[in-house]
Design a protein that fits this description.
single chain, 146 residues, mainly alpha, elongated
Amino acid sequence: MKQSLKYSLLFVLIATLFLIRAFENNLFYDPLILYFQNDYLYSSMPEVNNLKLLVDMLFRYILNSLITLGIIYLSFNKKSYVKFAGFFLILAFLILIVIFGFLLKGDFKEGYLLPFYIRRFLIHPLFLLILFPAFYYMKLNRLKKF
C-alpha cells in the first residue's frame, strides 16, 4: 500500500474517532453523560433505560473497536496483531459489560468510581491507547533482534 494512502486512511480513522466523540449526544442514548459531568455524588441517579443504554454502549464499542483494529492494521500491517487486538477487545467488552450491567442494576449503590471508569473504557477507545504502544514496542524489539 502506498504511504500516502496509508496515512490518509489513518487520518480518516482518527478523525472518525473524534467525530464519534463530537456527536455522541446525537448518536447514542446515554443519560449518564450529564450525570457524571455534574455533581453526581450529591444528585440522584437519572431515569435510565438499562437495555437501551447497554445496546447503545455495545454499538459504540463496536464502532470504536472496528476503527481501532483498522488503525492497528494500517500502522503495523500484521494480521496477528489485529487478531490479538480483536480477541482482547471482545474479551474486555464481555467482562466490562457484565460488571457494568450489575452495577447499573444496583443504581451504583456500591460506589461511583468503578462504574464511571468501566463506562469510560466501554464508550471511549482507551484500549487503542493501551494496545498501540504495546504493538509498537513489540515491533521495536523484533527490529533489534535482527
